[in-house]
Design goal:
Layout lengths: L6 E6 L15 H16 L4 H8 L1 E12 L8 E11 L3 E12 L2 E16 L10 H7 L7
Antiparallel strand pairs: 1-3, 2-5, 3-4, 4-5
C-alpha cells in the first residue's frame, strides 16, 4: 500500500463547464487538473509566476492520458486529488484523480496522468527540476 500525501482541491461544476446536456465537457477536466497542480505548487510554497521569476523555469506538458469512468453534472462538487507518480531528472509525472461527491460518498469519475518537463524559461530547453521543488514534492511521491 502506498503511503504519501495527496493534495486535494474541491472544484464546483459551473454552467460554463458543461455542454448542452448539462454534463461536464471532457476538455474541462484538463482545466480542473491544472488548477489542482497549481494549488499543489502553491501549497509547497510556489506560485506559478514564482517559478519563472525566482527559479527561471517553467513546466511544459509532454504527455497526457485521461480515463473517464462516469460523468459529472452541473452543480456537482468534485475533488481533484493530485500526487507525484514519478520524479526524474528533468521531468515529473503527476496522477490526478477526480472524485464526485454524491450522497456522502466519493465516486471516482476520472483519472489523469500528465508528464511535465522542467525547462529553462528563456530557452525552453530541459533543465533539472530544482532541488527545492524536489524537496517540496517529496511527501507527494507515490511509494510502492
Amino acid at each position: 500500500m502506498s503511503h504519501h500525501k495527496t493534495h486535494k482541491l474541491p472544484c464546483r461544476v459551473y454552467y460554463e463547464n458543461t455542454d448542452a446536456g448539462g454534463i461536464v465537457y471532457h476538455g474541462q477536466y484538463l482545466n480542473f487538473a491544472e488548477r489542482g497542480r497549481t494549488e499543489l505548487l502553491r501549497h509547497i510554497g510556489y506560485q506559478s509566476s514564482d517559478l519563472t521569476s525566482e527559479l527561471g523555469v517553467m513546466f511544459v506538458a509532454r504527455f497526457l492520458d485521461i480515463n473517464y469512468f462516469a460523468p459529472a453534472f452541473l452543480d456537482d462538487l468534485l475533488d481533484v486529488h493530485t500526487s507525484v507518480s514519478a520524479l526524474k531528472n528533468t521531468s515529473f509525472t503527476m496522477r490526478q484523480t477526480f472524485f464526485r461527491q454524491k450522497d456522502g460518498i466519493n465516486e471516482k469519475i476520472a483519472e489523469l496522468t500528465v508528464t511535465l518537463v522542467c525547462v529553462k524559461a528563456d530557452t525552453i530547453k530541459p533543465v533539472r527540476v530544482p532541488e527545492n521543488l524536489r524537496e517540496g514534492f517529496a511527501p507527494y511521491i507515490e511509494k510502492d
